[in-house]
């Protein structure tokens, strides 16, 4: 797996808090408060997985949907297609998301599934077929963390991705067309599940440690030459040891 964003270096929790407080001095108070407000609604209970997407327009719209609905992490499987963000569609949403790319092996789909399961996720394949899955309104959100898997616009998920999934979800449709495009499907499903999640007793928010990690990354992306500011801070801390 390759990270779509640079993974922050490991920091002791106390040092991480002090660094965040230091970096907050380089952004406006309104900006820092906005970070805290958005973080209070961020979740890792649901994550999104996109397999082999080749249309940057629709896939970038999914990133925007995830950010708007508070999903922090997006996973992208690159088998034969390399995904690039369309900035005119994403509108900067990718800057605030944790994007993991799986592209380092011949079995990227299986590796992504394995990695997500090791982190407690059940793989939920989206499918238009009536013989598989239930509607978003009927889907059991209480069984545990959810990784929603979406496929390409023309072919959907690969057969391997469908066969190896743990659960299935589908959107009921009543017209001649067999499926929505990925951006519409993602928006419908995520909205329904997030709404139900917020109205449940499930502990869906990021924990305090996760919030710190995300906030630090947001500050790093918001401040010019944050790497130099951080280096000066760490040098000063080490000097006073």
Plain-language structure description:
Helix 1 (13-24) runs parallel beside helix 8 (208-222) and helix 3 (56-69) runs parallel beside helix 7. This protein has a seven-stranded mixed beta sheet with strand order 1-4-3-2-6-5-7, sandwiched between helices. Helix 3 (56-69) links the parallel strand 2 (46-51) and strand 3 (73-77). Helix content is 43%, strand content 13%. The chain has 241 residues and is of the alpha/beta class. It has nine helices and seven strands; from the N terminus they run E-H-H-E-H-E-H-E-H-E-E-H-E-H-H-H. The protein starts with a strand and ends with a helix. It has helices spanning 13-24, 29-39, 56-69, 87-90, 108-118, 159-163, 182-198, 208-222, 226-239, and strands spanning 2-3, 46-51, 73-77, 98-102, 122-126, 146-150, 167-169.
